[in-house]
Amino acid sequence: MSGPRDWDAATYDRVADPMTRWGATVLDRLPLAGDETVLDAGCGSGRVTERLARLLPHGRVIALDGSAAMLDEARIRLAPFGPRVEYLLADLRRPLPIAEPVDAILSTATFHWLPDHSALFGNLAMVLRPGGRLVAQCGGAGNIASVVAILATLGDGWTGPWTFATPAETRARLEAAGFADIDTWLKPEPTPLEPGPPLEDFLRTVILGDHLARLPAAEREPFVRAVASRLPRPEIDYVRLNINARRAAYSRGPREPARSSR
Ligand SMILES: C[S@@+](CC[C@H](N)C(=O)[O-])C[C@H]1O[C@@H](n2cnc3c(N)ncnc32)[C@H](O)[C@@H]1O
């Protein structure tokens, strides 16, 4: 398995207003006393992480991402928090190199980039203390359907790397990974963008990175323009999958062997 790809982190930081706005609403669902250790799983350039760190004046944030460029950008933004933020370059598809269990996990706009949500939730459960909360949002069933339909008609027709799961699938996967008190739901978030360069910047940086990485350099900009010009309107039809859950207090971890009942 090759590592997660890198991102254009400076441009992402500039254009990620929708993700930051949604991230703030996800963070509102995480009750904090201020002294916890919280993992931000897929922190990106750190705009949502910054809001999280402000809520933890006596706590700690582990800012995890698979992109070194994103972590470099996050280091700049989060420098004022000093040692209260730890930076971790890690792959959410694998067991995470976190020794002490965290009190809670926040994740925004990340899970849909992962191919196997059962493995992902297992990896998260392993580093979350029993009773600790997982509060997350990512693309869900129906997310960016207009873009996906256009992608099916371009080049080799590859529609993308994404897992846009339903609330029911997600609940079942969370239960199997040892989570309880689960709530999962979809929320449409149609997002208008300025036509022309702003829309193209957004498509290039936020949505089409994996597609562009597969293309020769000379074909990348025509590909972005083709997607932008075929959208019915300068709007991305986002549908967000929300997750609230707790690691079950007394369940066995997803990877621990079942104990004999005798
Ligand atoms: C759209 S950004 C979201 C960043 C931030 N949470 C936000 O809401 O703005 C998605 C992030 O997921 C990260 N990511 C994707 N696949 C990953 C993986 N396998 N392991 C770790 N991070 C990954 C990317 O590097 C990227 O920073």
Helical content band: 25-40%
- Fourth-level CATH superfamily of the domain at 9-143 and 162-193 and 237-247: Vaccinia Virus protein VP39
Roughly how many Å apart are the termini? 40 Å
> Strands of the biggest beta sheet: in what spatial order?
3-2-1-4-5-7-6
Question: In percent, how much strand structure appears in the residues?
Answer: 15-25%
The Cα radius of gyration reads 19 Å
Assign the CATH topology of the domain at 9-143 and 162-193 and 237-247. Rossmann fold
- In the CATH classification, which architecture of the domain at 9-143 and 162-193 and 237-247 applies? 3-Layer(aba) Sandwich
Number of helices: 10
Gross morphology: globular
Structural class, by secondary structure, is: alpha/beta
What brief labels describe this structure?
262 residues; alpha/beta; Rossmann fold; 7-stranded mixed sheet; 10 helices; 24% strand; globular; disordered C terminus; binds S-adenosylmethionine
